[in-house]
Design goal:
Elements lengths: L39 E3 L4 E5 L17 E6 L5 E3 L3 E2 L7 E4 L3 E2 L4 E8 L2 E2 L7 E3 L9 E8 L4 E5 L40 E6 L5 E7 L7 E6 L2 E7 L5 E6 L9 E6 L2 E6 L1
Antiparallel strand pairs: 1-2, 2-3, 4-7, 5-6, 6-10, 8-9, 8-11, 11-12, 13-14, 14-17, 15-16, 15-18, 16-17, 18-19
Amino acid sequence: MVTRFAVTGVPAGGTIAGKATLGPPLPAADIRSSGSISGVAAMPGGEIWTVGSQNGALNNDNRYSHADLRLFQTLAFPQNTSAPQISGSAVRGQTVTCSDGSFTDTPTFTRQWLRAGQPIAAATATAYTLTAADVGRQITCRVTATGTNASTSADSAAIVPVDPAQAGAPGSQGPAGPAGPRGSRGPRGPRGRTARVTCRFLANRRTVRCRVRYARTTGTRTRLVRRGRTVARGTLSRSHTVTLRRSGRGRLRAGRYIVVVGGVRLPVRL
């Protein structure tokens, strides 16, 4: 259907506002010859048609004949290539958002949220919070793309909001993502105090009692070693003392020994 424009004074066989020369007559079989004409008409596809002669006569239907119409100019306008989309949870009280969709040209965008096809008052932002009036009704978002010459609108697919009580249970948690990269090594801590040991023979010389200072753990198995062989064993107590008992026959002799506490080797002289 041809759209009516309030434009008059079309020159015969010439140009309009110096824009372009009138083209050939509209073909008789072209359905775009139908509709009301008042100087200039816009067609689908951005074509602008005009009356090609000041002497064009109205027919019995009070319309110009197709032979009186000329293509004046084809205007570029945004064309929708991907419809807008609504994202978010369709539950009363939740906020949903509307994407731009995809359009040719480099247009600017405006939005209008619709309830059952009718504009919702003051709902022109990218985001919209669903209300009780929206429950059970189709909610869509209309994006209008305005280019240099014209505007084009496209509607999103509809959502139908529900009350929170009707919403389904949350889905199960998805699998854990891959582990992140290992962090940098932290600063080195302060140096601890060096463990020390003092030992003495008991009367029978088959037992040695030692006191270990600054040992990190208690309950640690402790050995007394001489010349690479373990000659006595014991367990470090909470008071950091240990009684080492001879593991073989005979008495222990005076000399140099090593007390091994949890992997730490402490030399001692008995």
